[in-house]
Write a structure and sequence with these properties.
CATH class of the largest domain: Mainly Beta
Distance between the termini: 18 Å
CATH topology of the largest domain: Jelly Rolls
Structural class: alpha+beta
Radius of gyration: 28 Å
Strand content: 35-45%
CATH architecture of the largest domain: Sandwich
CATH superfamily of the largest domain: PHR domain
Number of domains: 2
Order of helices and strands: HEEEEEEEEEEEEEEEH
Length: about 230
């Protein structure tokens, strides 16, 4: 009687472990699929109305706009406005990204023929992470003589992952530096940026090791139980 009970108990354990060994590859696949899902987007997507500001002479300053990140973002490229995308820009433009307190996070020079997306030419950078809820400022150098155009739009359409909060500039003749003077408006649209959004957390390596170990344990246990039943 006892032997029958023990045999039935072992059979039950074997069945459970079989299910576990079958399920573990599915769990592993799910974990791998749950790796970061990302998509690229432009911060500023379109402009309407407003005024163009070409041919600056006699001043060297930085113009741009401030914004709040609504999600955790990874900035992958900095850009500059090109009103006539069929033609190259007239000159290169130094573009920078700062924290709200003036810490420079990234900068690059957008070339006259840098790759074009919409109305902006972009130069790739080493990715920079922005935190949801934090404020940042992007700016572009306006050097003398300045022969391209930047725009102060009547309205601006941004990606939902950011909120444009104000226009930004530094003082005349301050060159490429943090544009700390913030004023109400839709931004001084020379600079722009591209970003990715990570929508899910990356599984930790220890978690994947645990999943692999669980599957291996299940398969090994099933084999051992089968051996017991045949002895």
């Amino acid at each position: 009687m006892l032997n029958v009970y023990r045999r039935n108990k072992i059979v039950t354990i074997v069945n459970v472990l079989k299910k576990l060994s079958i399920a573990s590859p599915f769990i592993l696949t799910t974990a791998l699929v749950s790796a970061p899902s990302v998509y690229a987007s432009e911060a500023i997507q379109s402009l309407t109305g407003g005024s163009n500001f070409p041919a600056f002479n006699g001043t060297n300053q930085t113009i741009g706009w401030s914004f709040t990140a609504n999600d955790n973002l990874s900035v992958t490229a900095l850009g500059f406005y090109d009103q006539t995308p069929a033609n190259p820009l007239s000159q290169s433009h130094l573009v920078g990204l700062w924290t709200s307190d003036g810490n420079l996070l990234a900068s690059t020079t957008v070339q006259t023929t840098s790759p074009l997306t919409g109305s902006f030419r972009y130069q790739d950078i080493a990715s920079v992470n922005l935190l949801a809820g934090m404020s940042y400022v992007i700016g572009a150098a306006i050097t003398s003589p300045f022969s391209d155009i930047y725009n102060i739009p009547g309205s601006v359409n941004t990606a939902p992952e950011i909120t444009l909060t104000s226009s930004a500039r530094n003082g005349s003749s301050e060159g490429f530096s943090f544009p700390s003077t913030l004023t109400p408006g839709n931004g001084r649209i020379g600079p722009n940026f591209k970003f990715d959004v990570v929508t899910q957390a990356v599984p930790e390596p220890t978690s994947l090791i645990g999943i692999l170990g669980l599957g291996a344990f299940g398969i090994t246990s099933v084999r051992k139980r089968k051996q017991l039943l045949t002895e």
